[in-house]
Amino acid sequence: MDENNTRKIKVEKHVWPDELEELRKKRRKQILTVALCIVFFLGGYLFNHVTSATPMINNNNGSLESESRKFNEIYEIMQNEWYFGKDEKDISEYLLDQSIFGLANYNEADPHTQYLNAEEAESLMTSLSGSLTGIGIQYYRQNDTILVDKVYKDSPAEKGGLIQGDIITKIDGVDITDVDIDKIKEMIMGEEGTKVRVEIKRGSEVKTVELTRATISITAYGYVRDGVGIIELSSFSDNTADEVAAYAKSFKEQNVKSIVLDLRNNGGGYVQTALDIAGIFMGSGKTVIYQEDKNGNLTSYESSNVEDEYTFDHYAILMNANTASASELLAAAFQEHLDATLVGTKSYGKGTVQQSIDFNDGSIFKFTVAEWLTPSKEKINKVGLKPDEEVNLPTALTFAPSADTTAYKVDSVGAGIQDAQIYLDFLGYDVDRQDGYYSQKTADVLKQFEKDNQLEISETINDDILTALNSACARKWHDEKATLDVQLLKAIEVVK
């Protein structure tokens, strides 16, 4: 069939849309709108001809016929009697799509075998390009608020003065408080050269900036600090290796002797890009990755023969719990071939290989076919890499905030209270505890924060104050990263 075109896709932790939302939820306080599929447990069976009376599941002894009949009966009920079916444009398509989702997704043994609908697949392919047209920000929803998480270097947003921690309140004059996150994306993105007005709130300050959309690289950024070349890599996309080579050349011209590759929060990418990056620094012919199939057969992948190679005296790799897949494998290769020092916290541990099948409707089914091993043939899946130098960032930057939306008064206990205490401690306020008990001391400190930020004085810990605290922490990280990023400081120390 022409719709079953099998191809290999990028080697990564596979932060697909659902995983990305889960990752963000672990790192920040946010409320997600999730479409739950509660009736498709039996969707794990093959679903050909679901509307026919013929059992969808057959085997030689007919032991699954009852399950098949059950599935068909549920399908017909959902199609004809389910109340919320009236909200679907094509109920048959919706039910089939959810059935496939139930078959492929949320496999406890293998979370990386998944079905992506057309919209999710399009989002994936956009991420593979390593560039986008827009204003150059990452953002996320915290309850009803859109917070700026990252501003890309040399982007329209950076040139317009946006920083991490800014709260976006309006786009082209439209209040986005209750606007769907996908609609917000449409409002921000657009054709290169077109303009968009963004209203932001920073503390008590509110201002509107007009930005001109542009095509922005979103995978690599390099700079020199204390005589050390730093290259931040957010993923391994089409153009990442070329960008890395350009930075390496620039570092050589500046007589830089040591390199730090920052792979924190790098979920992976194309394996060929990882091999190309390896070739830039270690030359061609070095084993970077082994692939082991289900029969135990090994295939080696070597560093590429690139046009320009650049060698340096010392290397360090920055990593954390979100460093995954291809980035983990590249880190291991640097450690083994270039004696690189791994700095930070243990990596994610994603070491499986996926292939995908593309369908005519734009959807994709990806499934695991093999496992990746390091150059020394060590497995990383569900294990990860341990750092040579373990360095932790402040708790407020790495903990998993609750999704607690309760409003709390003094002398109460709750997860949201603990979140507030952690934030306040990071911001330098003298909190007496971080255990979730709302003491009078915590209330006094909170009042001081509200006063310092020209906010309404209240003893209530709720969504609004948690958003303000989170935003303030993000701005502090942005403003004081030079001293707060103890992981980077350690990496620079070990290579000098």
TrEMBL record:
Pfam families: PDZ_6, Peptidase_S41, PG_binding_1
GO annotation (BP), single: signal transduction
Protein keywords: Hydrolase, Membrane, Protease, Serine protease, Transmembrane, Transmembrane helix
Gene Ontology cellular component annotations, sorted alphabetically: outer membrane-bounded periplasmic space
Limits of the PDZ domain: 121-188
Molecular function, one GO term: serine-type peptidase activity
Membrane-spanning parts: 31-47
Alphabetized PANTHER family for the sequence: CARBOXY-TERMINAL PROCESSING PROTEASE CTPA, TAIL-SPECIFIC PROTEASE
Family: Belongs to the peptidase S41A family.
Protein's name according to its UniProt entry: Carboxyl-terminal processing protease
